[in-house]
Amino acid sequence: xxxxxxxxxxxxxxxxxxxxxxxxxxxxxGFWHYTTLDTARKILDSECIYASNLASMNDLDEICxxxxxxxxxxxxxFCNSNTEKIPMWYLYSGISGQGAAxxxxxxxxxxxxxxxxxxxxxxQDVVLYQGKDFDLRYGWIYYREPTSHVRIMYxxxxxxVDDSEQFETDxxxxxxxxxxxxxxxxxxxxNKTGNPYERLV
Length: 201
Description:
There is one protein chain. The chain is α+β, with helices and mostly antiparallel strands. Helix content is 24%, strand content 32%. Strand 6 (118-120) and strand 7 form a beta hairpin. The longest helix is centred in the N-terminal third of the chain and has 10 residues, at 37-46.
């Protein structure tokens, strides 16, 4: 497939900056969150979901890309797909595959995004406020070819960006193309307090 030439600014703008009014305008597919049984129980019992920092991610290239911010950028990751993905069970539920996949509808994800006004540490002893202590971003992952920093796939469409450095700067939605099967949608919390946390809730 031909790769459309596009500026780094325009490609980054393709990720949403405002939450659509209608869920159907947000996505036509569900959002799957894969995790261990223990974490799934905690999510269901507390009705809260955990955001891990980049230092805890399994993509080492992504950690290297954001080395200076890896302890201050937290993510909640979902597989945006009509069906569950077998490899995701083993990656995020454990090698036995005996974990959990919690499915959120587009409407539920929309409500979740609208509800994020504060987050806390798991011990509930520190409260962070959106705008003051953290910034909220969300969107789908850009997958780039491993041998090129300018060739990017976004939602099944290939693009060639004009400025890879501008595209990468403070962009927490970039992974290598081999991860494309994850169909990842991500909620990102950027901690501005200067105090690193392993997880936020």
